[in-house]
């Protein structure tokens, strides 16, 4: 499964595409896409240049957590620095 | 005191205003990211893992208290209450919102600061010796020439689109604290046999995926010709450097393909054509810049102070801090004070807003308003009276800034790594934290002596691992973090590139490995030689055995 991610343009926060086509900072709320469908969804997301930047696809497991080769990177990216657990989404500091 | 003249002030203000317009056009959708990215990078604004990152230039690492207070204000108002001093004497903010960056740049401009030349394929901010103007034995203040280079290089139209980024470092002491041999151009100010002062010009050093020690292409360049000679080097590079392959575009590749001798000939030929043109600065202009770096009004003090000696005898912790964190000043009765930003379990280079304000206050009271940033991610108070050292130590200690470990095993350079950086493969900071914890628990850091550990989270080598006495490079193996050890590197006057010693280690094993290497060194060293000297004497083999024996 895949999810669409990018950085919110105004503040750079890591966001994911939801089912309702809005963006969320919580990976648990990301819409899962079948691998075959995901490229088209990404293409559409990439046109939303006034909202986000650097959109790309990540692998997610059935439970919605990052998976595959980039799992560690994407886990840190979604949560915040492992050396500052008081910062980032993991600390509830970003909405 | 270093200052910007009216040209610089205007230039910086205009640039900030221009960027405000560019940000507005990006936010309105008028500019695409592809159009905007080069513009934001020209203003030091990167996009990292969690947020944007703004890299602010600290020319030659020199800061006034007013500027430090402004950085604290920015950290508190626009960021998350801290900043990160980098391995190039700059400071980075990790969480600025794009919408706030124009205001941040205005705030910076109000104290003669900016983010120009902190990114992109231009001549980057010049770096220098953090002890400049204070070091005992210095030939002259290297910042004068660093500033000459800055004025020449900022927005230089011919060199605004180089094949790749270009870094210049300047030192004027026998002890090289500016790592001049691993820069695109390193300049060592020295006296020749006739007693004249000039530059040794070292070209083509660098780290990254293809590390090289630079080659001296000219032993002695008279000072008056500095800019025309640099211009000749840059012209050769701009014309001949590769633009087809990102990884082969630095000047080190060109120099090593052509050979140092041929490269030097190419430069000399170009120089002959321009050396008598008007590139070089007139003497009065150099004198004007020299005035910016006039030394403060030092008092004539005796070399020893009774109160200071008494405090040293009475307080062992103070005595230890003095031994480890202070250095000889050119004026008697004064000391150079190093402020370690590497507390046990700390994040190398990080400093909170309140700590920044504390440093600003201490510098104002005790160091003629001057602060320096070092490429080893620490700070320096360059001009402290010996009879003030005890008060300075107390004041620093009150803010968690009196860690006595400069140059020791826990004074680790670490890049931000995968905790922050979009390019990283692995984390660096947690390794640094665990090494510092291990040696704090073991004790005896001072007994181990000078030992430079440098950690990079990817091959780009921002953590300078190639020149660590012990270097640690993070590599990704099928999604898992592994760490490759290199030994025997040095970024100082005895520069060398470390050698890789065997297979990568898991994150769990790497701290044990460092301890084993240190234990082996302690057993085999002779006459208090440094770790690096033992390694150079014995070679890699016995260290490899010690490293992998237990595994």
Order of helices and strands of chain A: EEEHEH
Number of helical runs of chain B? 18
**What is the count of DSSP helices of chain A, taking H or I runs of 4+ residues?**
2
The major beta sheet of chain A can be summarized as: 4 strands, antiparallel
Mean pLDDT of chain B: 96
Distance between the termini of chain B: 55 Å
Order of strands in the sheet with most strands of chain A: 3-2-1-4
Helix content of chain A: 10-25%
Number of structurally distinct domains of chain A: 1
What is the CATH domain class of the largest domain in chain B?
Alpha Beta
* CATH overall fold name of the largest domain in chain B: Sulfite Reductase Hemoprotein, domain 1
The two chains with the largest interface, and their residue counts, are: A-B, 27 and 29 residues
- Domain count of chain B: the total is 4
Share of helix among residues of chain B?
A: 25-40%
Measured by DSSP, the beta-strand proportion of chain B falls in 15-25%
Strands of chain B, count: 21
| Fraction in beta strands of chain A | 15-25%
CATH architecture of the largest domain in chain B: 2-Layer Sandwich
